[in-house]
Amino acid sequence: MKVTIEELEEYLYDHYSNGGIDQSLFMKLVEEIGEVAEVLNKKAGRKSSDNEDLQFQLGNELADVIHYAVAIAALNGIDINDTIISKDKAASIKYHHKTNLEQFVLSKRNQQTCV
Prior knowledge:
This protein is mainly alpha-helical and 115 residues long. It is 74% helix and 0% strand. It has helices at residues 5-16, 22-43, 54-75, 80-94, 101-114.
């Protein structure tokens, strides 16, 4: 099953709106970023690892980062989907990318409908 950013925002808003506090969610986000760093250090051999499934752990920690980042956006009324697209357009211009996220997605969708 695929979940859209909008669906995730709505779910997390529903989940946290009755007591989700931005600051505590931010602290969880920072904690999860630290856990991503720990797994990446293990993958790079900078920290020891005991036959752990580091790829699985990395996926779980990244999911947690996304969870808390989107929750903070949802509680603050930020449409993170629109923000991502807008910010990517500006970065594409600034860094002279040949395409931006919106163009990439639209092109990919057009290719899928032509098949």
